[in-house]
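Field guide to reading this record: the first block holds the primary sequence, the second block holds the structure written as discrete tokens, and the final block holds curator observations. Each block starts with its own label. This record concerns NADH-ubiquinone oxidoreductase 213 kDa subunit, catalogued under organism Aspergillus mulundensis.

BLOCK 1 — SEQUENCE
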Amino acid sequence: MGASADDHHYHPQDTIARTMRTTGLTGSVGLFASAVQNTLARQNVGPWGVFTRTGATIGILAAMGGTYEFVKTSSANLREKEDHWNVALGGFFSGAILGLRARTFPALLGYGAALATAMGGFEYTGGSLFGKRRDPNVDEFERREKLRTQWRTPGEQTLAELGEGRGIYGPGYAERRRERIKEAYGIDVPTSHPAAS
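BLOCK 2 — STRUCTURE
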């Protein structure tokens, strides 16, 4: 019992370090997106157009990433729990940053609620597009063998529950079938089928 209690104990995280790292990462993504926008512009705006013309993309993405990580980590530290509600809170405030561009209160709430729902739901369902994450400490072969044998039922139990037929036949089925046909119709069924010519 003591080991499982230690496994579920929350360990506080460094909010500022994580926020700075995420802000830098999303700011880099924003810089790339701004460079692509600058490249696709019809006018020749020069290399500084990345900052002067489409630089708002850098700021918005950096602010969204930093806000998300700060709120998510702060919420986890305050609640001492790592779950989907932290992600939903971070998503709401991050979406609200995106909603600030529209300069209306409904847009702020709408973008926040949409991103909170999407990110919170994604985290609640396992945080992966490919299903729930597997425990790295469990051997995959042993896990699959356990799954194979966990729901396996003995053949006698299956026959008792379903009965014979439909591809499920117990030992001695041919003899029992022959006897039933003999009793019902008076026909002797041969024990072996004649060879095909």
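BLOCK 3 — OBSERVATIONS
The chain has two domains: 10-124, 140-185.
Residues 1-6 have pLDDT under 50 and may be disordered.
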